[in-house]
Amino acid sequence: MSKAPSPTRIQKKNRAAILEAALEMFSTHGFRGTTVDQIATQAGLSKPNLLYYFPSKEAIFAELMEALLDTWLDPLRALDPDGEPLDEILAYVQRKLQMSRDFPRESRLYANEIVQGAPRLGDTIATDLKALVEEKSALLENWMTAGRINRTHPKHLLFSIWSLTQHYADFDVQVRTLMGDEDPYDAAPDYLETLYRRMLTPRT
Question: Which residue range or ranges hold the HTH tetR-type domain (predicted)?
């Protein structure tokens, strides 16, 4: 069986333009509020040209979310059982904050999907994400049992990290308006490190 021909430079460029346009539209208007026509216009392509690369809006969204979830879960996967627990958790907090700074549209895209009831991500949340959270919650529990960090609810600890870091992306306009001329990411790293360090450092 002969291999399918490799995509040309123009085909790669058009696919990238479609995905970039879709990210902008989906993160702004949500899945339901975005149309194929809007994505095509944003990408500078005709609708038939877009449909040559992706058969539907759902197919575009699925490809975006697959890449996003890998990126989003990598910092949690990186929690090292052999590392120093407090250092590992604080590094995770900082990586999540950095992702909110560097990938705000992706964060809003994920948040919009969850707010809508995760109609396209429900299976992934119930399988891949749940398995990863169970694994890392068990690791956190082991560190707590060994007295290496203060005891708290491991899953709520993860939820709070997600909430406190992704807030900066999901509520970007509100955060920047209230912060005025101060860049919110100037002080946020130190604030979050102090918060979690005080919370998790074992009492002597």
Answer: 12-72
Rg, Å, the chain Cα set: 20
- How do residues 154-183 score in pLDDT, each as one tens digit? 999 999 999 999 999 999 999 999 999 999
pTM of this prediction?
Answer: 0.86
State the CATH number of the domain containing residue 29.
1.10.10.60
Q: Look up residue 175 and give its amino acid.
A: V
Which is nearest to 72 in space by CA: 96, 90, 88? 96
Evaluated on CA atoms 94, 100, 102, 107, the torsion sign reads: positive
3-state secondary structure of 157: helix
The answer to whether 68 and 138 are in contact (CB under 8 A) is no
Structural domain for 3, as ranges: 1-55
Same domain, 87 and 161: yes
The tally of domains found in the chain comes to 2
Phi, psi (rounded to 5 degrees) for 27: -70, -25
